[in-house]
């Protein structure tokens, strides 16, 4: 199985959740809650065992890949967006962290600076973006 790449914050959050659940597991008496906690603890341990943590240092990248922070510009409205492409466990669009499985990330992965890509939209016109900057770890 391929290694998962997690940000340092994502790794910390999973480790904190694991510690919390292990404490909670000892305290709870409800069987259904224990089952949920047991499954989640197992899931987190698997994720951490299969993952590596990205370093904090970023430098200009040649192409977009999981872990990249990419700045794109909408070719029609000229609006700019900066996203970090992360594992689905860490995705948080409010923090500009999008899943590798999101339409934008799927379309951008493998592209280089100044490349243009299109994202298909179910209803409405497709969105076209140009990659302005790529930072990789």
Automatic annotation (TrEMBL):
Signal peptide: none
SUPFAM superfamilies assigned: FKBP-like
Ranges for domain Transcription elongation factor GreA/GreB C-terminal: 63-135
Gene3D superfamilies for this protein: Transcription elongation factor, GreA/GreB, C-terminal domain
Source taxon at top rank: Bacteria
PANTHER family listed in its UniProt record: TRANSCRIPTION ELONGATION FACTOR GREA
Molecular function terms from GO: DNA binding; RNA polymerase binding
Biological processes, Gene Ontology terms: DNA-templated transcription elongation; regulation of DNA-templated transcription elongation
Name of protein: Transcription elongation factor GreA/GreB C-terminal domain-containing protein
């Amino acid at each position: 199985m391929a290694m998962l790449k997690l940000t340092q914050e994502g790794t910390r959050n999973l480790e904190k959740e694991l510690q919390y659940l292990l404490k909670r597991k000892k305290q709870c008496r409800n069987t259904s809650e224990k089952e949920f906690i047991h499954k989640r603890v197992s899931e987190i341990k698997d994720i951490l065992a299969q993952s590596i943590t990205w370093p904090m240092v970023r430098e200009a990248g040649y192409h977009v890949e999981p872990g990249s922070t990419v700045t794109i510009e909408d070719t029609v409205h000229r609006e700019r967006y900066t996203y970090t492409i992360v594992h689905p466990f860490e995705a948080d669009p409010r923090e500009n962290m999008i899943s590798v499985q999101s339409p934008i990330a799927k379309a951008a992965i493998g592209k280089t600076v100044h490349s243009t890509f299109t994202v298909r939209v179910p209803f409405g016109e497709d969105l076209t973006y140009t990659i302005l900057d790529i930072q990789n770890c």
